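Friendly challenge for the regulars: who can give me the structure tokens for this chain first? No prize, just bragging rights.
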Amino acid sequence: MLWWLLVACTPKPLESESDRDGDGVVAREDCDDNDPLVFPGASEACNERDDDCDGSVDEDFAWLVDEDGDGFGSGTPQVFCEPPGEGWAQGPEDCDDTDATIAPDQIERCDGVDNDCNSLVDDAEVMVTRGTTGFSSLDEALASAEASTTLGLCPGEHPLTQGLTIANGEAWTWIGAGPEVVSVLPATDVTAVTLQDGAFTLNGIEIKGAQATVVQVDGAGDVEITGSRFTENGQILRIPEKAGATTFSARSTTFVRNVADATLIDADAPVMNVEFRDCAFTANEARLDDLPLISVWSNIKREASLLVENTTFDDNRTHRGKGYGEPLVPILDALWLSQVTVRDTTFENNVGGGIEASLCTDVDLTRVSLQGRDFSGGLPGPVTDRDVYATALRLDILDTIRLDNVTVEGFTSPVSGGAILCTICRSIDMIDTVLHFNRALQRGGGLWCFNCGDINLQGDCVFSDNEAQEGGGAAFVRGEIFDFATTLIERNVAERGGGLYIDRTEWLADFGSRVHDNVASESGGGIYVQESGASFTSFANFAITENEAPNGGGVFVDFGAAEFATMQIEGNVAERGGGIYVESEQMVSFNGGTVAGNQAMLNGGGLFLGVSADLTALKTDFDSAAGANTPDDISAFGTPFSVDPGATVFCESPSCTITVP
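First reply, four minutes later:
Bragging rights claimed.
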């Protein structure tokens, strides 16, 4: 009886714990307990059923459209029991099906993009990438990289303890990824890049703190720098004379606070092209004497060129040349080049010269401004600090020079040529050039030309407020001047030749210009003619007005023959020779024009003949709207003469003959 009771009280099994289909999975876990082929873990078949009880039907046969061909698709899944072929993919969904470099199997790169489709941007511990491979450091990337590699550097600092050597025609590129700063920090004794044969490109990267040379070119190749920055390094580039054909290009790149015991950028290869476009050089220094900031030197074959365009040089420093009294060396030095071109470029607040070009074929400066010391309040007293001695432009032994819209202000030379020093040049054209507030301790406060042929000043050139011992505005020695069209020589100061100093110049014609308000402390307030040379000095079609000197307020002719044609010599002041003082014993002639309104404190208001010179004046007006000369028109051989309008004057020691028509 008890047994029956025990059996009667045994509970019946729950339906959820049963396994009706015998597939080993109880009903509560089996999504179909009536089919032994359906249970969790079963293989999904293409049968429009959920065989593995995961809530999805035929998911192993679901395909997505793969538009970018990277093996991952997107959009609405479609079921194919057989693989549909090219253009379809299975697996995780592609977060950007238009870019094959973005997919779930990609390496995350530091480019501001979710490369691996995990909904996070730049989340991996990757500092350098090469294609789809990531590296934790630049050193690791260089050690494992293959030849001709492009490396993407992530924002942040990249210590560099081993340099890169490029050879066998390899081409390497370092690119900064992302908008934030990417800095490469070379170790103290590490040359970042040595180029033996190949090419190196740097784009969007800062090189900082290098003490060894950053880029050394030992063979042939190309170096291209774009959108980068060099900060607080030593020497940046070295191309030695032994290097092969080389191209160096820097574009949209800044150079800031680099200090070198060498030339900062030193290029000496026989065959090369060097260019700087849209660059900025700020607060850099070549620390040793006799070293420019940038040097581009070739050899006698002149197979190299230099281009500087839309670039600024501000607050940089060079030091003096090695000789006693040498000026500060230039910021930019070019030697033995076929072409030197500088356009749309400024030099401001530098301690050093501007540009020096020697033994080059052609030099072309267009829209270039060189600003030295601030003399806007006028020239200071005597200069005693030799650290301010510098010439803005030094041009030596060149074929052709073209200066178009060049402005030079505030430079002081310890020798000649405060603004521009030009020696032994075949031709020089100056167009709309302004030389203002410059000083030379010898000749040519604004411009000094020695042995230059075919000198042409065109457009509206202005030489003003300059100072020198001889030729405050400009000095020409052994030259041939053909054109001074519409040039203004104004408010310059010198001992001799306040405006212009002319020595052994063979020809001076067609001025069409004005020499005005200049001062000489000894002779020739406007112009001083030292010696005419084998031919004679000819002045034509320009005005010499309101200049001042003790002798020859307008013009002083010291030696040689001189001719004045259709001149306007008016309002000048002197003790002797208010308009002109002639010391020469050779022929001086006037043809047309006016010599009027000049004043001498002693004698020779218009013209003073100091020695036994021959003088001829044809149809020259000694009394015009400017007024009469005071106290006389001509003082010759100690005798004053007055000249009637239209008269012809002929003077030959000891008297003058005046013929009235």
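Helices lie at 2-9, 138-144. Confidence is low (pLDDT under 50) at residues 1-10. Your move, everyone else.
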